[in-house]
Specification:
Elements: H1 4-12, H2 18-27, E1 41-46, H3 56-63, H4 66-69, E2 72-78, H5 84-89, E3 95-98, H6 100-110, E4 114-119, E5 126-131, E6 147-150, H7 155-165, E7 174-177, H8 183-186, E8 192-196, H9 200-206, E9 211-215, E10 227-231, H10 232-237, H11 239-258, H12 260-271, H13 279-293, H14 298-301, H15 308-319, H16 327-330, H17 334-342
Parallel strand pairs: 1-2, 1-3, 6-7, 6-8
Antiparallel strand pairs: 3-10, 4-10, 5-8, 5-9
Helix pairs in contact: 3-11, 3-12, 11-12, 12-13
Length: 351
């Protein structure tokens, strides 16, 4: 769902196909509008999930016209889940939101020409949840012989990577299809459940359950979570356009970190209004995710920017999932480095 300001721009614009819009955006990336300001055309963002509080920064940037201020004529926030990297590589979206591990995998396996230019979640929020008690999974060693509920996709691969990172035989773990149903944990069908610290843990605790969380980022897998994905072509030929996107994102997420409830209200009342979102859960998610979006390590480097040391840790963590990739083939922080060099005031984030 688009903001009132965005919709007013769309109403005045001619109806064009997505392909034509993308072509126009590329052609105008280094051009100017009638008033001499940059004119970057329409912007399509492929989100990784439904429109809940996870994308608070994007809602603020859209609703307050921050993308428009940076030269875009409109923004389309496309809900997921979907094959994010494929959407970007095919031109269906200008920017995609994915994880470092997923992006590394498609680059290594398929040679997809995409790169990560910044990470909203500088650390992933994945965790192994278990019920508090004598059989709780408190350390990676407790995974041995445990039944772990996983959703179809990369979840099992990530848990196996956690085992590898801690010298545990992945074959000692029994994987149980969970299909997004943490009730398997509460009714005793599994010993642990692979989920998110910002989602399933909140849901279970708000149901009154006492759970133990084993965060992957603190136990050998500190790869980045939600990250911005663009094509190599965009980085080479439309740098000003991609840079404008990042500027709007920094400004939006600066507000989301300072006032988490602001993004929650937008999710509940506008962007995810038709999803039946739980206000208490969304508020808790917005508060908790601040620690992933703006950890203490970001105070000097800024939002989204992964330091060389963080990138090195990412590459090592990703290798435990059987994906070998060079840092330069996965990450490009040059635009964020330029932005913070030119606008050091953007480093100031209050939480």
């Amino acid at each position: 769902m688009m903001s009132i300001r965005t919709r007013s721009v769309l109403a005045a614009a001619s109806a064009v196909t997505l392909l034509a819009a993308l072509t126009s955006c590329s052609a105008s990336a280094s051009g100017s509008g009638a008033d001499g300001e940059p004119s970057f055309g329409d912007l399509a963002l492929q989100l990784s999930f439904v429109k809940n509080a996870q994308n608070s920064g994007e809602y603020i940037a859209d609703s307050e016209g921050l993308y428009l201020d940076e030269g875009f004529s409109s923004v389309d926030l496309i809900a997921g889940p979907t094959a994010v990297e494929a959407s970007v590589a095919s031109g269906k979206a200008d920017v995609g939101f994915s994880t470092a591990l997923t992006t590394a995998n498609v680059i290594a396996a398929e040679g997809m020409p995409v790169k990560i230019i910044g990470s909203v979640y500088q650390l992933n929020a994945f965790t192994i949840l278990s019920m508090d008690g004598p059989t709780a999974i408190r350390t990676p060693e407790d995974l041995e012989g445990a039944r772990i509920g996983v959703t179809a996709g990369t979840a099992q691969t990530i848990v196996e990577a956690l085992a590898n990172a801690n010298g545990i035989d992945p074959d000692s773990i029994e994987f149980v299809p969970a299909e997004g149903n943490p009730a398997l944990l509460t009714n005793g069908e599994v010993d642990g459940y692979f989920g998110l610290d910002t989602n399933e843990r909140i849901v279970l605790e708000q149901q009154g359950e006492k759970v133990v969380s084993l965060p992957l980022a603190e136990n050998g897998l500190p790869f980045a979570g939600t990250s911005f994905i663009v094509t190599e072509e965009a980085l080479a030929e439309d740098r000003d356009r991609v840079k404008a996107f990042l500027l709007a994102e920094i400004k939006g997420w600066t507000q989301a970190v300072a006032d988490p409830q602001k993004g929650v209200d937008l999710a509940l009342e506008e962007y995810g209004a038709d999803l039946g979102l739980n206000p208490e859960k969304e508020a808790a998610q917005a508060e908790i995710q601040v620690g992933y979006v703006y950890p203490d390590s970001s105070i000097e480097s800024g939002l989204f920017l992964l330091t060389p040391e963080a990138i090195e840790r990412n590459v090592e963590a990703i290798s435990f999932a059987g994906v070998d990739i060079a840092a330069e083939d996965l990450f490009d922080m040059s635009l964020l480095e330029e932005i913070y060099a030119e606008h050091p005031e953007l480093l100031k984030v209050t939480k």
